[in-house]
Amino acid sequence: MDKHDLYELCVQSPRHLVPLLRAVHSRNPLTLGEDFSGTASLSQAWVDAAPDRLAIATDIDPSVLARRPEHPRLIKRPNDIRQTCDNADLIFAGNFSIGYMHTRAELIGYLQHVRSRLLPGGCFCCDTYGGESAFLTGSVQRDHFAPDGSRILYIWEQRQANPLTGRVVDVLHFHIERDGIIEEEFPDAFIYDWRLWSVPELRDAMREAGFRDTAVYLNLPDAEDEAGEQYAFPIDDPDELEDSFIVIVAARV
Length: 253
Prior knowledge:
Elements: H1 3-10, H2 14-25, E1 31-35, H3 41-49, E2 54-58, H4 62-65, E3 74-77, E4 88-93, H5 104-117, E5 118-131, E6 138-145, E7 151-162, E8 167-178, E9 181-195, H6 199-208, E10 213-218, E11 223-224, E12 230-231, E13 244-252
Parallel strand pairs: 1-2, 1-4, 2-3, 4-5
Antiparallel strand pairs: 5-13, 6-7, 7-8, 8-9, 10-13, 11-12
Helix pairs in contact: 2-3, 5-6
């Protein structure tokens, strides 16, 4: 396994994210735009979930996007996300990648471009984190298990954080352990220099970019029916949030 395999295993949960995004959209979206897609694992899960779905995965690194096998309903765009013009019902910028927009002008410009791509009734979603630990440095470790049974130690480190500028540097590390022995290490596997946008900053920018409505959702579904259909409801009460939280901020055309 390389660092991209480990990222998919430890960081992403596309099979759980697909029904949640559908619940946030709430109108049976068929076409997904996955911005900052990396290996396009979410796009793959999207098209695998139903035969009438299409996905457009955009990432600026063609070598990473090329890792995803060709699929007749998965379009790969190896370019800047602001150059992709394919229309979509739902566009998602996940794993805090909205933070690549370092200035408000960049953020609003990106949101205006996203809005131009959305079909009537369309929805844009991005995730962000906040709360009491948002600008604290430190690390969190989680364990995962690979298909071969080896243990993966996944470490999320916030290396730098400046509440005066909103800038953070977040780093991902991986260790592969077999029989109690660390056999492979991937220190500094991914390093991110982000602007950590707050929820109100994102919502204000979305409105300025021309979206008619914005809402905030937990990153887990609120309910699921007997058929497995998930439901998500906007957060209105701040008491619904944990002291430190991850949320999805949505904007509708």
